[in-house]
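Data availability (excerpt). The following record was deposited with the supplementary files.
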Amino acid sequence: MYVYRQRGGRRPFTLVSLGVFAAVAVLVAALLAVTTQGQQIRNVAEPSDYINSNLASKPQGVDVSKWQHPSPNSIDWKSAAAGGKEFAFIKSTEGTEPGNDNLASDVKGAREAGMHIGLYHKALPSMDATAQADAFAESVLEVGGEQLPPVLDFELDEGKNAEQLAAWVQEFMDRLEDKTGRTPIMYTYKSFWMVQMANTKKFSEYPLWLAEYRQEEPTEPQIGGWDSFTFWQYAGNDGQADGFPTPVDLNVFNGSKSELDKMVGTVGSGAQDTPAPSGEDKTGESESESGDSQSGTDESGTEESESESGSGAQSGDKPLTLTIPKLPIPEGSLPAGMTLPIKIVLPSSIFGVGSSGVSSDVNWLKSLLGGLPEEVLKSVEIS
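Predicted structure:
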């Protein structure tokens, strides 16, 4: 997910600075010159290594997609649970198509490990909202059982204006709720909602899953009229967790364990939802409150400390992530500590546009990643 966004035993190489192009060139040259066998490194961090907040003591979780599967079924869910992860959001669909070949095994593994699961859908607003909601609902209902509310991952405009995007979201949410009986969760990030969505307050009744990558906890007032966030994605490309062979997105639930349990429910026309927590811990099961004096930014807004996210983008500016899934070198020849896919994180402010406005044209990538063969450039994903 994103942005995934995406998403650990080893840290990816992430580059962000005004000299980013030179840095990328150095990285490409180094990759092409690799001849020695890489060595696996495991260095799993604690939530408190990422966030300077009492939220580090609240229920922790992950979200996963294909990027957590360098090989099939490569996640050790029992290790993830033993390492303190209590919930997992799993990518289900993108557009009208399946978005995760490992969905069934991820759901099974997480459930058997005792974790709560929820599914998320990557929205493509250029395509019909109802058709996407139907495809997602079908997947949610097929998985069945008890789940966290389904999630709309909304972070692309695909050329639509704020009014069109709001209409798309409303159509999708209404259809999904009608099909599943659950009130969906909205996943987004600050600058996208402020700019592309014109900070609309039309959707503040839906639980908010906010992507803000830096150390301090997001504070009120929130975007879009939300009083508080329900989930906070606080780390992405540098997220590490037990059981994951690749970086993984890290999340925290803004409530107590009992409140998280209450958000879990069955899906179907007769399902009943429990309201999302207000952000205040009324049960005494967690030591923190949502109103900590820490302030936060969005997924794009990292601070200078690289231990929080590694993205280094400016506040309000979601970074672009270039994912290189393959290289023209023998398997196992990467340097110590490096693993495929390799992610290069760039501030979108360098280009003056958001991630949805950057072309994946090979010529554009050649100017940035000169030296890599065209077949590799064509495999690069921009998110």
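Summary of structural features: The first strand starts at residue 60 and ends at 64.
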